[in-house]
Amino acid sequence: MQEKSVDYEQLRRNAAAARLRAFETLHYSGGGHFGGVLSATEIVTVLYSSILRIDAKDPKWPDRDYFLLSKGHGAVGLAAVLSQLGLIDEEYLRSYKAFDSSLGWHTTKKMPWIEHPTGSLGHGLSVAVGIALGKRLDHRESRVFVLLGDGECDEGSVWEAAMSASKYKLDGLIAIVDRNFHNLDAPTEELMPLEPFEDKWRAFGWAVTTADGHDVQDLWNELSRMPIEPGKPSVLIAHTIKGKGVSFMENVSEWHSNKTSAEQFAVGVEDLKQRLGGD
Fold this sequence. Notes:
This protein is α/β, with parallel strands linked by helices. It has 11 helices and 5 strands, in the order αααβαααβαβααβαβα. It has a single domain, classed as Rossmann fold (3-Layer(aba) Sandwich). The mean pLDDT is 92.
């Protein structure tokens, strides 16, 4: 993949459009996980637009790269990106949280491109380790990407999986942490400090890099060089803003999961449409 072939402006616009779709979906369904959905939009957009080796016509292509949304409460954000890129039908978003819908509060395998149902935080990295080991046994070169929340990294199982990945030298495993500095009801550094976060991952034997999680070019530059170091799993710590793009939601923990009034919805739509250039 050559950098000159990447249209960063189109990536930016796709992310902005997906963020607006997700915001509208959450409002019309009666609310949901606004904060962490809006913080991860550029990450997921860059992955599915230009990083993951996938066959758009075959979500189960045997040699595909895998993506697991460990922070499964971001399901509607993932669906919005997949819909924006034409990988799933818009109907999945229209049916969000409806009875027996394929798209719920957390990811389920009823929807295409979902490799594993997630939502019990702390499990995604362990599943990703298992998939990476399986691909090694099958002699396939598939990479396994997994997106974690930073609050999720309070879970001990995350670090057990991190030790396993290092022990088995799983350089085809790439973790991305949505580092928005907010848990469900308070900043991460007040509830359970994670810093020095980069040093912790290095101490567990991982190759570490960072990026601005809302700068598509910065994200592409870091993700396109994965794995960082032969024989080591890689982690990208993406610095983001919880509730990104909606003025009254940004960096406010209570918007982890909430519902919007008609007045708040109008403000949010206006905020997000400005990022589309007024479209």
